[in-house]
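Sequence in, structure out. Go.
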Amino acid sequence: MISRVADHLFWLGRYLERAESAARVLSVTRNLSLDGELAPRQAWQPAVIVSGEEDAFRARCGEEGYEDGERVQAHLTWDEESPSSILRAVEAARENARSIREVVSLETWEAVNELHLWLSGAGRALYREDRHGFYRHIRQSAQLCLGTVHATMLHDDAFDFIFVGVMLERGGQTARILDVHHHALVQMPAHQVIETALWLALLRACSGFEPFMKRFQGRASPATVARFLVLDARFPRSVNHCLHHAAQRLARVRPAGASGRSLERLRSLEAQVVDEAGPSIDGGELHAFLTRVVDETHAICDEIGRELLGSSPPAATPGSAQ
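Output:
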């Protein structure tokens, strides 16, 4: 497979996952903002930080922008200059799929294109009339696109490149969401009811609420939530699960004789997560640990770009664009 095609496949997976994650975070944050115990800034600022848009949002809207949930949602949904917005992510996914139309299945192209057309048309009306329904449609459509890839494409190199992108994007997003929200939680005054609501909202932001409840019978605490989102190999959005499956797929697509630096770093990061997550959580060093995970995940994406994709833009933040 030529590097140009592999690059489009890799970023197709990343952008679909990014759009789905952004919609989920905004939906959960919107519901959380309705809690009268939370100031608007406490609810909305973490969503901006998770997206990697804190500096750009502050420059455009000022500090007072965090007090206005509508401004935050508009920026992270529709802003054409924000590389992390849902609109830009869907447009980029569609452009990457169009560029390799002969590689992806017809059903995959139709699913991605339909999401793009809906967002440009009927989606705007639904955004105004039913915000919850809008975010739900984005989530379901992105999941449909990835499910269509899984069900209609050969499980060959093209498939693996898409899901290397998906898994690295997903693992980085989970680590970043947990890091930002955990850091905000430990700085808040102690309040058992609010803390529980925020931990459950964090699980929902990572699609982990129901799996966590089945695993821990509803006993939510900082340690159990952090361990679940980082280490639980059975949860498909845990950092451990994502890194493990990204490494498996990357090993399959790496050409014989090619430099293996990216794969070595990925396997090393997976081992660090397994070995160091528990002690970091127990020792109160979760923030430093997750920061290393996020930074190394993005560095690995850059390494993959140099090794296998010919050229790839820096992926230092979730907002990096292709």
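Check: Residues 105 and 154 are 9 Å apart (CA to CA). The chain is about 75% helix and 0% strand.
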